[in-house]
Task: inverse folding
């Protein structure tokens, strides 16, 4: 039987296997319950290995989620942490380790690249470009853009 999907059901399933194996170890001679004990321990190890494999978060997974969501104003490190079921601190550490820079710098670089592309290839108003790359506040976008490029969005466009 494979463990159920919910966290509580998984816990109960693991717990049952563990305590039954422990009961066999404490209550019977090893030779008498050897097969059951080995089976239970083997199942537990298999389940733990399976869970560990499912928890591996790599750069490709992170990169794909960032590419799909970086233009959303609600996109954040906490969103990634929720998706991967880890803490924000751990996601931040993992992001830097896997992607080579911190989350906000990485996302800003993507947004800046997209903004430049939109400014140079479309006639979208700057406020719309700001929204299209995830900035609700156009003045914050303009300020950050100028800080990064040395020119305003309008100057780049000209």
Result:
């Amino acid at each position: 039987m494979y463990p159920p999907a919910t966290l509580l059901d998984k816990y109960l399933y693991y717990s049952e296997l563990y305590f039954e194996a422990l009961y066999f170890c404490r209550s019977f001679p090893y030779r008498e319950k050897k097969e059951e004990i080995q089976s239970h321990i083997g199942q537990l190890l298999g389940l733990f290995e399976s869970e560990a494999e499912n928890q591996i978060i790599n750069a490709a997974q992170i990169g794909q989620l960032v590419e799909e969501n970086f233009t959303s104003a609600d996109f954040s490190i906490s969103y990634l942490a929720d998706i991967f079921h880890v803490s924000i601190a751990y996601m931040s550490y993992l992001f830097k380790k896997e992607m080579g820079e911190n989350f906000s710098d990485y996302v800003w670089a993507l947004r800046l690249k997209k903004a430049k592309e939109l400014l140079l290839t479309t006639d979208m108003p700057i406020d719309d470009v700001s929204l299209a790359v995830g900035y609700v506040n156009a003045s914050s976008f303009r300020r950050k853009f100028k800080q990064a490029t040395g020119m305003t969005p309008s100057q780049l466009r000209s």
